[in-house]
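Support reply, case 0932

Customer input (verbatim):
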Amino acid sequence: MELVKYPDPRLFKKSVPVAITKELRDFIDQMFLFIKNELTWGNPVGLAAPQVGKNVRVFIAQDNVYINPELTPMDDAGTSVHEEGCYSLERDRFDYKVTRYNEIVLKWQNKKGKWRQERIKGLRAQVIQHEYDHLEGRLCSGQIIREDLDREDSNTPVSS
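Our regenerated output:
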């Protein structure tokens, strides 16, 4: 298993729903081991399947597995700006400013295939939104890339 890094096109591809099989459960176990053994910098709180080369709708967030998730933002709870990092982007950089919903409703399957639904807020909601973005083919809702391009453009001398 290997970490997929920007600008690999797999990071921008929308992931597909997946059947829950022994192979998938083995893959999820490998993802947990990868987090523990390979993501040794920062404080890893999640990993999405596209980040390790599989465009399927699976992610791990705060030691929980989410399969085929469906996310609904709770607009009435508002949004907040958070600083985040991403293992598919720059190592040791955790200051990307990203707007996240304060609360979400998430529906997902567990490893046994049972559907669950929960209203989630706080850090857990932030982490889930980050990982869910990977399944949608977005890196931190695209805000990171726009911010970096704007910063690079402002540092580029204009020739006339």
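We compared this against your earlier run and they match. Two observations from our side: Residues 76 and 103 are 9 Å apart (CA to CA). The chain has one domain: 9-155. Please reopen the case if you see a mismatch on your end.
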